[in-house]
Write a structure and sequence with these properties.
NUDIX domain-containing protein (chains A, B), hydrolase (chains A, B), homodimer, WHD_NrtR (chains A, B), DNA-binding, WH-like_DNA-bd_sf (chains A, B), alpha+beta, Arc Repressor Mutant, subunit A, elongated, two-stranded antiparallel sheet, NUDIX_hydrolase-like_dom_sf (chains A, B), 229 residues
DNA sequence: CAAATAGTGTCTCTGAGACAGTATGAG
DNA sequence: CTCATACTGTCTCAGAGACACTATTTG
């Protein structure tokens, strides 16, 4: 092995959640150079005997304090352009995590320096390294996947109403959906959601049925994102 | 950098083409351990100052002899489970390449040991390392992308007929499509194909118009893969 | 001429979107 | 009661699939 070019390998995480009517990403403020004091995606070096996804789960739990939160984690892509990290040749494997709005948003060991930031307030150049690009790719992946997978439910608590699920779509896509057609579509797509029999109480208006995620991994027919203009 | 765990980084390529009515992948026979004598995906180590995609392009041209073939290349995913390579901790970034059927299929420096193999004849365990898995992932990616992108044209020569394009779909999806509806759908989807004004000659039947790829990067509405049964 | 392939017209059915109308809660 | 939200029914239009039909070549 010593004859092969030595690389460092990191994982970085695009962690998204829906808070109120904002799509937010988990960011950490860097405490050490390079890019000291700037915001960055959470992440870190992969141990030499650690699987990539395990490193991602470890970093996620270190940053959020949550062990196995009931969301979604998938590989996003790998970024390894020479010079992307001034410390040397670092290849980073980016992961995308979608989480429900957490009771205690960030409670890990690095809590002081980590916080949720609405993606609408971020602009090119705000983040360290090439993390702007990675975040942009993660957002586009998330938006695309809402169309043909039931992943919107990953942003919701274990039990949720159709209106909550609709709010996820509206927030992530920055669009308005007709509540009546949305209801019919979601409940009519096999395997998307399953009724729990329970209903909400104490809200305004008629109580809503509570659902949990169905068994489908692909939506057929897909949810259609209104065409951009 | 010396304080970070040292990894080796490779690129591996899932190179697909359509030959006759078969979807084939480019495989190389390994000449050195580990897995000496077994078939594997083409690939190799990334140079310490080389971009990942450049390494993929370099390996592709070394194996096929073609510089910038008019196909498609995209990152597929990264595989880095400890133990996947007996030589040590090797993380590989897999790329997916879609190429038109080449006049001289494989004419690179490693030509003797490289050849196209129909994917239908390959089964679990045929390939070295975790390349079975990578190939499977590449196939699924290719099949999915035909639905919502114009990538089928990457399997065709620069100018092609609607029937040739249909043959790509039928081969990759292992299905039959109605020639008449297919024709209407493809020519009616904005930006998918553009007429060259030329027609074929010398074939049986009425001459067909020749098209080249249109400017669209996403098909709307998408091509629908017949539901699996 | 027949056979083969290219391309068009038209019907039916499904599903998306618009939106009226009904159900059931809080105040 | 009013208001708000949940949910259902129904209409219209676009597009997928089935398939009859026309067009243009080779032999």
């Amino acid at each position: 092995m010593s004859s092969y070019p030595p690389f460092a390998v990191t994982v970085d995480l695009v962690v998204l959640t829906v808070q109120g009517d904002e799509l937010s990403a988990l960011l950490v403020r860097r405490g050490v150079p390079p890019y000291e004091g700037q915001w960055a995606l959470p992440g870190g070096f992969v141990d030499i005997d650690e699987d990539l996804v395990d490193a991602a789960v470890r970093e996620l739990s270190e940053e959020t304090g949550l062990v196995d939160p009931a969301g979604h984690l998938e590989q996003l892509g790998t970024y390894g352009t020479p010079g992307r990290d001034p410390r040397g040749r670092v290849v980073t494997v980016a992961y995308l995590a979608l989480l429900p709005d957490l009771p205690a948003p960030v409670a890990g060991s690095d809590a002081a320096s980590a916080q949720w930031q609405p993606v609408s307030r971020l602009s090119e150049g705000d983040l360290a390294f090439d993390h702007d690009r990675i975040l942009t790719d993660g957002l586009e992946r998330a938006r695309a996947k809402l169309e043909y997978t039931p992943l919107a439910a990953a942003f919701c608590p274990a039990e949720f109403t159709i209106a909550q699920l609709r709010a996820v779509y509206e927030t992530v896509w920055q669009t308005r959906l007709d509540p009546r057609n949305f209801h019919r579509k979601v409940t009519g797509t096999p395997g998307f959601v399953e009724s729990t029999g329970r209903v909400t109480e104490g809200d305004r208006g008629r109580p809503a049925q509570l659902f949990h995620r169905g068994p489908a991994s692909l939506l057929y027919p897909p949810m259609l994102r209104p065409a951009a203009e």
